Every structure is written in structure tokens, then in C-alpha cells.
Amino acid sequence: MPSPPGQADRGNPTVRTRRAERRTPAERRRAIDKSLSLSWVGPPGGGLPTVLVEGNERVKWVKRIVIALVVVFAFFYLITRPEDAATAVEGAVGAVWTGVEAVGTFFTKLAT
After folding, report:
1. How much is the pLDDT for 44?
2. In this structure, is residue 101 part of a structural domain?
3. Quick check: pTM over 0.85?
4. Most CB atoms within 10 A, among 17, 49, 50, 58?
5. Which residues span the domain enclosing 94?
6. Closest Cα partner for 15 from 23, 6, 24, 28?
7. Closest CA to 88 of 104, 103, 74
8. Which residue has better confidence, 19 or 105?
9. Does 22 map to a domain?
10. Number of folded domains in the chain?
11. Domain-embedded: residue 95
12. Does residue 88 fall inside a structural domain?
């Protein structure tokens, strides 16, 4: 007995893959955006209307907040403990310099 349309292929990944292959690139992007990057946000108790926000927009805000916190912490550290801040900067520069030297040595050995 045949299943109703759309029900027989729900658990079959081959059928889902074939259906996805028939989509145009724009349709695929829309489907990915719809399934992964969009979510509903709003206050749990209501009050303000719920808004549809893209996930990328939320990531941008999180990045901005994290960068601001890092800058504020670095400034606070510089003001309250200048000697320790100088030592930390020296260590970071030394680590970068060691990495650059290692890459240079690698390419020098590779060329010889």
C-alpha cells in the first residue's frame, strides 16, 4: 500500500538528498538561512513584540561585547599593574617573534 505523498520519504536520507539537489543555489541558501541562522527572540513574559533576528546579527553583538570587555580589562590592567602589563606584552611579542622565526627556519630548510 503506497504511503501518502511526503510521508514515505521523511526518514529516507536518499530521497531528501535528491530533493535538495534539485534546488537552485539561491533556494539552498534560503533553506540554510531559515533552518540555521534565524531564531525568535523576545522577552519571555511578553510586553514587547517578538522580533525575528538573524543569527549573524547576534554573533556580531556578542563579538562587540567581548572585544569591549577585553579592551576594558586591558586598560584596567595597564592602569593598575603597569609592570605586569609590560611583562605580558613582552611575552606576547616574544611568542609571535618565535613563531615567525620557526616559519622562516622551516622555509629555509625546505629550500635547501
Report:
1. 56
2. yes
3. no
4. 58
5. 82-112
6. 6
7. 74
8. 105
9. no
10. 1
11. yes
12. yes
